[in-house]
Amino acid sequence: MIRTRTIFLAAALLTALNVAANAGGLERSGRVKAADQPYLAPVSATSTAPWSGCYVGGNLGYVVQTQRAVDDIGAFKFDVSTAADGFTYGIAGGCDLQMGSSPFVIGAMTDYDWTNSRDKIVFNTTGGGPTVVGDITIDNTWFVGGRFGILVTPRVLIYGVGGYTYVYSSTVLDPTGPAAGVSSDGGGITAGAGIEALAASGWSAKFEYRFVDLDNDTIKWDTPIDSVAKVNNNLHQVRLGVTYRFGGQ
Q1: Domains of the chain as residue ranges with CATH
Q2: Which is more confident, 49 or 196?
Q3: Is residue 186 within 8 Å of residue 167, measured between CB atoms?
Q4: Of 88, 114, 216, nearest to 168 (Cα)?
Q5: Is 231 helix (H, G, I), strand (E, B) or coil?
Q6: According to DSSP H, which parts of the chain are helical?
Q7: Element (H, E) at 8
């Protein structure tokens, strides 16, 4: 599974960099050809690189939620780590503002993703306790935040992301016996980075990574063991997106 995740991340990054390179190449090619054309009046920066404005889009990606549950005070102690992972798809929207003629862009953004992420849990307890199995499932996530970036060319933006992500997930222990359901919905501060390249007619493509420091949980269940556990959660996301900018060129 680790090798599969690595191949996926590498392929996503190469795809994004190829899009950015092509966009930059088109821009440089345009400048060369313009030298052979009759003189035209200068075009404003906002029309050649229309980053200011609002957009909608969709994305595909991959998510991994790491979770560590520890009970070191009960009769049956355990320390278990899991990593629920799967593909995601969703919708996004936002607005950007290019700061005058400078290469800096700021924006507000939001998105909502669905996912099929899940993993098995096995609790090997100490002190003669039972082995407990279960499932962890991530249903969907939503994000609200902003970004700040710099244009490396008029049509290629690299940026940082910050905001808040909420994750809808659940944990069910011992699903073949007396089930103990634990809701582990929660949110956390989000940070990440990305690259976006403008194409033609308002369309753009982007690649992005985000890390979410989710809330730590304290969960309690009575069956199949009497336990109170501290749970540490983190979320990693990689995303490929396509957006359409209203009034873009």
Answers
A1: 2-245 (2.40.160.20)
A2: 196
A3: yes
A4: 114
A5: strand
A6: 2-35, 45-48
A7: helix 2-35
Residue 22 is predicted with a pLDDT of 52
pLDDT digits (tens, 9 = 90+) for 210-227: 999 987 766 665 555 556
Report pTM: 0.69
Question: Which residues have CB under 8 Å from 192's CB, separation 6+?
Answer: 160, 161, 162, 208, 209, 210, 211, 237
Helix (H) or strand (E) holding 96: strand 78-98
- Number of other CB atoms surrounding residue 16 within 10 Å: 22
- Number of neighbouring beta carbons within 10 Å of residue 162: 13
Q: Give backbone dihedrals phi and psi of 92, rounded to 5 degrees, phi first.
A: -150, 160
Is 136 in contact with 124 (CB distance < 8 Å)?
no
Size (the chain), residues: 249
59 within 8 A of 16, measured Cβ to Cβ: no
- Alpha-carbon gap, residue 236 to 5, rounded angstroms: 12
H helices present in 38-102, as ranges: 45-48
Question: What SS3 state is found at 139?
Answer: strand
Q: What is the pLDDT of residues 237-249, one digit of tens each?
A: 999 999 999 976 5
Give the Å distances, CA to CA, from 6 to 10, 20, 88, 242. 6, 21, 17, 23
Inter-residue contact 243 to 199 (CB < 8 Å): no
- Please, are residues 79 and 231 in contact by the beta-carbon 8 Å criterion? no
Helix (H, G, I), strand (E, B) or coil at 12: helix
**At residue 122, what is the residue type?**
V
Handedness of CA 118, 12, 90, 68 (dihedral sign): positive
